[in-house]
Write a structure and sequence with these properties.
Layout: E1 6-9, H1 13-24, E2 30-34, E3 45-47, E4 53-55, H2 66-76, E5 80-84, E6 87-91, E7 94-97, H3 109-125, H4 134-159, H5 180-188, E8 201-205, H6 211-218, E9 225-227, E10 231-235, E11 240-243, E12 248-250, E13 253-256, H7 260-266, H8 272-278, E14 282-293, E15 303-306, E16 315-318, H9 319-322, E17 336-345, H10 352-366, E18 377-391, H11 396-409, E19 412-414, H12 428-444, H13 449-452
Parallel strand pairs: 1-2, 1-13, 2-9, 6-15, 13-19
Antiparallel strand pairs: 3-4, 5-8, 6-7, 10-11, 11-12, 14-17, 14-18, 15-16, 16-17
Length: about 450
């Protein structure tokens, strides 16, 4: 492989994971192209005009992989915060610790009874294996009460997709299933049950938001990173990429983190079978709303989920709790910040000002802000983020079974959150490791355990 030209498209976690590994191995014949003038992909961070730091949505650092842990250690050193997750669900006037289904005691009694009766019925029937879609899987696992109270409205808000059009195969660590005896005992003994999940403890950079990790990575090999290079076409016969500025490059192997549906349409071969398969891939978009306040908020809470349709955001994060330096000058005695996420469908164009007002009203209704805090909001930030969630539809796996082998035959490793198009391996640690393992496979034939499964 010493003479093979490796071109990486995309400077997010996957592209930079591949770049970092190639650099670590001493391999020289590679280059990375990024369309933006900054790196980090969806894990980048921005500073607004008032000095508040914002991520592109709620990111926290937790890991399944020692390699990723060491990489973050090397990038941040001691300049990080370590936090214990405290997250809640707001439903009506109730605040319920996460996960919802394990903490039903916080609900009004009639809702508790409905949730427990539904969960008991689901446990007795045991039909989760018969479910053919995500909606049926929710009903089979949680019962009608929990489904109607939280799972249906929340997931509809996040995914912006009918739940019956989604697969049940992606959940794994993403959704805590039900142990009815545990649910009942938690209610009877008035016991909190909040430790579920891999992110119950997480890390966050002290300075610069999540994007600081990737800015520091690039400092290891700055001459290899070319920003402002928007991919326009891929000549998969001649193995050449072209950019919107008229430039281009040849490759022997291409590692692409471009969304797979877009990549299929960029191929010069214009394989109709691939284009048709790519048409079955669906995603949604994200509107990030940031509220910077000239007010101290002292809290141990990390993020809050909203199921009620009156509140447009599905999640609000106490972002100043993650690091004091997410506010101007690190002065959390004077400032605080809340970051809210609103999913929207492809083709929609929500008005950021209108949505911001709706979010503020929802936060006031939930008690996270007071009415008088409107005058303390010194920064109203918003950013639209295209390609937020790759939606695990019923047609997804069939589409990927056509697209991914075809890409590999062309010497194209389509990896990352939207290169792989598999939400279940779309966390930051997964994404970095997909890049690392692609590099290992290209150079040494090692198995890609994240992408293919161990």
């Amino acid at each position: 492989m010493s003479e093979k030209r490796i071109v990486i498209i995309g400077g997010g976690p996957t592209g930079l994971g591949a770049a970092y590994r190639l650099h670590e191995l001493g391999y020289q014949n590679w280059v990375l192209y990024e369309k933006a003038d900054y790196v980090g992909g969806h894990s980048c961070s921005h500073v607004d005009d008032h000095g508040f730091v914002w991520d592109e949505g709620g990111h926290v650092i937790f890991s399944h992989y020692p390699y990723f842990d060491k990489l973050v250690d090397d990038m941040l050193g001691r300049e990080e915060n370590q936090l214990v997750r405290e997250s809640w669900i707001v439903k009506g006037d109730s605040w319920i610790p996460y996960p919802f289904q394990n903490n039903l005691r916080y609900l009004p009694k009639p809702v508790q009874v409905s949730c427990l009766m539904g969960a008991a019925h689901a446990a007795a029937n045991g039909k989760s294996r018969d479910a053919t879609n995500f909606r049926d899987w929710i009903l089979a696992n949680f019962g009608e009460g929990i489904a109607e109270a939280f799972m249906f409205p929340y997931n509809s808000k996040v995914w912006t997709t009918p739940l019956e059009e989604m697969s049940k195969s992606w959940m794994a660590e993403r959704v805590a299933t039900v142990d009815f005896r545990r649910l009942l005992e938690n209610v009877l003994h008035e016991r909190d049950d909040v430790a579920w999940g891999p992110n119950n403890k997480f890390r966050f950079p002290m300075y610069g938001g999540t994007g600081e990790i990737y800015r520091r990575m690039v400092k290891r090999f700055p001459e290899k990173i070319k920003t402002g290079k928007q991919l326009a076409a891929v000549d998969d016969g001649q193995r050449r990429v072209s950019f919107s500025d008229g430039g281009g490059d040849s490759y022997d192997v291409l590692i692409s983190t471009t969304p797979l549906d877009l990549l299929a349409g960029m191929l010069k071969s214009r394989d109709g079978r691939l284009v048709d398969a790519a048409g079955d891939l669906r995603h949604n978009n994200l509107l990030v709303i940031g509220l910077g306040l000239e007010k101290k908020i002292e809290t141990g809470k990390c993020w809050i989920y909203f199921a009620d349709p009156e509140v447009p955001c599905y999640r609000a994060t106490y972002f100043s709790h993650y690091s004091p330096f997410n506010v101007p000058g690190g002065d959390t005695e004077r400032y605080s910040s809340l970051m809210c996420e609103v999913s929207y469908k492809v083709g929609e164009s929500p008005d950021p000002s209108r949505v911001t007002e709706q979010v503020i009203a929802g936060l006031i209704r939930a008690g996270m802000l007071a009415e008088t805090d409107r005058d303390r909001i010194v920064s109203r930030y918003h950013r639209s983020v295209p390609y937020s969630y790759p939606i695990p539809t019923l047609a997804r796996d069939r589409a990927l079974s056509i697209l991914q082998p075809a890409m590999m035959e062309k010497g194209i490793y389509s990896r990352g959150r939207f290169g792989a198009w598999r939400y279940e391996i779309g966390n930051m640690d997964h994404s970095v490791m997909m890049g690392v393992e692609a590099a290992n496979h290209i150079l040494a034939g090692d198995k890609e355990t994240v992408f293919y499964g161990s």
